[in-house]
Amino acid sequence: MVYAVVRAGGRQEKVEVGTVVVLDRIAADENGNIELAPVLLVDGDTITSDAQSLAKVKVTAEVVRDLRGPKIVIQKFKNKTGYKKRQGHRSELTRVKITSIK
């Protein structure tokens, strides 16, 4: 069993070949592929975590689609002062499928 822990969008995700992961918006190349930086690689019984060995490892993924997250409503209110503020936010996301770990 081969899997890797990759760094993407300020978080770490455990991925295998064929895994579909939702990440923060990432710009892909002209073919729709991206490369993710591995933090840890597990290949059967061997675990690789040092930076020199991980520099040789490539985790590639293809972009399935770009999407947006759910709407988050931010409301601020102060009693007896007439202060009200309402704000919304939607995260820009990318759904990717892991194609290879080499």
UniProtKB/TrEMBL annotation:
<keyword id="KW-0694">RNA-binding</keyword>
<comment type="function">
    <text>This protein binds to 23S rRNA in the presence of protein L20.</text>
</comment>
<keyword id="KW-0699">rRNA-binding</keyword>
<keyword id="KW-0689">Ribosomal protein</keyword>
<dbReference type="GO" id="GO:0005840">
    <property type="term" value="C:ribosome"/>
</dbReference>
<dbReference type="InterPro" id="IPR028909">
    <property type="entry name" value="bL21-like"/>
</dbReference>
<comment type="subunit">
    <text>Part of the 50S ribosomal subunit. Contacts protein L20.</text>
</comment>
<keyword id="KW-0687">Ribonucleoprotein</keyword>
<dbReference type="InterPro" id="IPR036164">
    <property type="entry name" value="bL21-like_sf"/>
</dbReference>
<comment type="similarity">
    <text>Belongs to the bacterial ribosomal protein bL21 family.</text>
</comment>
<dbReference type="Pfam" id="PF00829">
    <property type="entry name" value="Ribosomal_L21p"/>
</dbReference>
<protein>
    <recommendedName>
        <fullName>Large ribosomal subunit protein bL21</fullName>
    </recommendedName>
</protein>
<dbReference type="InterPro" id="IPR001787">
    <property type="entry name" value="Ribosomal_bL21"/>
</dbReference>
